[in-house]
Specification:
Length: 125
């Protein structure tokens, strides 16, 4: 059995280099899914601000979604977001409305250690 993979994103969405990193994260997630691998695509830090952009009312108009939305749609069921980061960057309500699971209790961060202790390979972008 293959080792499951946790892809953790931290990048902002305002710079072209950040959009490039996100495209690589989405490509990796799509490739893992096509290969039948278990994985999670985790949005933490400033990357949680991507989620309203991808699922907001104008998501279909967002240039990134026009180019990479099919990748995101394919892996959506594997996406999670950090609770603390969603609250800190003011997107918790939008992430909840998009039905993206938010991990972490109270005001805390999600526990990435769960994946490490369970033997998952962790890749960060």
């Amino acid at each position: 059995m293959s080792q499951p993979v946790a892809i953790i994103t931290f990048m902002e969405h305002s710079a072209p280099t950040d959009r490039g990193r996100m495209s690589h994260a989405l490509n990796l997630a799509s490739e893992l899914q096509a290969a039948g691998r278990e994985f999670k695509l985790i949005f933490a830090g400033k990357s949680v601000e991507w989620l309203p952009e991808l699922f907001g009312e104008r998501a279909d108009q967002h240039p990134f979604v026009r180019n990479y939305g099919d990748h995101f749609d394919r892996v959506r069921s594997h996406v999670e977001a950090c609770n603390f980061c969603c609250v800190r960057f003011g997107v918790r309500d939008q992430v909840e409305a998009a039905d993206i699971p938010i991990k972490g209790e109270g005001k805390g961060h999600m526990h990435v250690s769960e994946y490490v202790l369970a033997g998952w390979q962790v890749i960060t972008f």
